Amino acid sequence: MRRWALAAGMVAAIAFVAPAGAQIALYEGRLPEGFAFVRFANTTTGPLDLAPAFTDPVKLGTDGASRISQYRVVEGAAGKTLTATTKDGGTVSFQLAAGKFHTFLLTEGGARLAGKLVTDVTEYNQLRSKLSFYNAASTCPTASLLLEPANQVVFSAVATATMKTRSISPVDEARVHATCGAAAVPSLDLGELNAGALYSVWLMAPGGTPVTFMAQDFIAPYQR
Fold this sequence. Notes:
The protein is mostly beta strands and 224 residues long. It is 0% helix and 47% strand. The chain has a 4-stranded mixed β-sheet, with no helix packed on it. A 4-stranded antiparallel β-sheet has the order 6-5-8-9, with no helix packed on it. Strands 15-12-18-19 form a 4-stranded mixed β-sheet, with no helix packed on it.
């Protein structure tokens, strides 16, 4: 089983997410004082090798889910300015809210690296699938996600650098497409969505062309 560990040996909300068909257990608790979670999303046109000052190095690619890192546990996050650098010297800084999950959208700010911090909604239901939609395309002031073939609205009016989430019934297959103004965005096959699993659909526009892809959300093992 893959462990969604909040902190080893500590009282926390811990979910064990396993492959399709495996048993899922959920233990209720609370995040230890001062802890937070952060992951990185690469919206740029090239791969990134990131060296956060507070956790292990992060490699982000340009092919679909390789753009999204696992969540990393950050101890003593409240009130601290955290930094991450790239191998070519680019630096980003941000502050996290304790007890929250965050996604840091890495963007190209002219000749330097920039970013935008998103505070994630993290509701969880072990009997349903959790699906989130991130608008990480600077060219799309608002975006929606529609379920094919009837164009049923799954998410609507999602502003740039924000996200929305909802719990849905597990399904064997699903196909969706995003809207980005008048731009045509190719449809996306989500495949099977399992009970208790967490998925995110991403709208990005590296190089100005909107694309969508899906990633499954995981937490990296916590090491003190």
